[in-house]
């Protein structure tokens, strides 16, 4: 990407092209991060996958950490709608709604792939873990906690999340049997009261 | 390690030297796997850290996967005593014993480091995940399950482990707040009934 195309991209591109390019870079970033994880991904690699100059990637997103955060935010977009969906119903059923939501995300390959990439990166790299903390904690768990209206609501939400993340990890990543092949409804039936208990039990 | 030392090691070394060398290789393997994870570790790298020839590493342990399994088995040795310890007490308290045991392992830096390396490797690599499955499932969880004497005991043990692994992951690896800084006893108090419930509740 040198010569005419590169030169044309110096300075701010016109508005519509700008949005297209930004989206293309973001899609490439999601793909490259998903495939190689945070540590092994370079801004240059993302630029190459998007067919643009590395400087343009920096121009739109800043550092590698900031690109990762933007890519993760896109992957988390459905999850960020969850707190509203979770609020739409009685508090006695919030455990089942959250459990079904989380397993729904993991059962669907389209949403599982980026989530798995985020989890892998967060387990392996402190910077990626910080991004995971900011997004999951600030955007997802705190919004779940806000609905509980209890002084220890955040800790409750985190322990409920721990049961769900642990079960997803063992079923979909480590593939421990019999959990990996167990009927989804039977897992949801067993996990729901735990999640509900963490969230609302006195 | 070529020349005299290398030549002296060809063929089977005498018995005591053999045990020493084997231990030295195993210690080096644990260290190198802990630091770099399964994927980035090579047999050559382990041999170099142990100060021996790569052929000798293969001679004692076989493939990289087999070395990993041997190293993980050593790291898991305290955990493998757990089922006996867990059996030493009433079944109504097995949840608390298992919870205290797992958090005890994670609170202690000496046992946390190899465990973290295993978890990281298992999340990132299918071969390492298979080793994790074999050891955790066959050696640890099935032995816990055997004490329950219930038809779904293995699934129960796995869901209890999911709560514990998820909580450890969020507290010690992702360091999500307030969970990461919460008083250990308060966490144990909240997690124990969940673990007990998974294991023994009708």
User: Which two chains have the most extensive interface, and how many residues on each?
Assistant: A-B, 40 and 40 residues
In helices, the fraction of residues of chain A equals over 70%
Biggest sheet features of chain A: none
- CATH architectural designation of the largest domain in chain A: Orthogonal Bundle
Number of helices of chain A: 10
Helix and strand element order of chain A: HHHHHHHHHH
CATH superfamily of the largest domain in chain A: Tetracycline Repressor, domain 2
How large is the radius of gyration of chain A? 20 Å
Low-confidence stretches of chain A: 1-9
User: How many domain modules of chain A?
Assistant: 2
Give the overall average pLDDT of chain A. Answer: 84
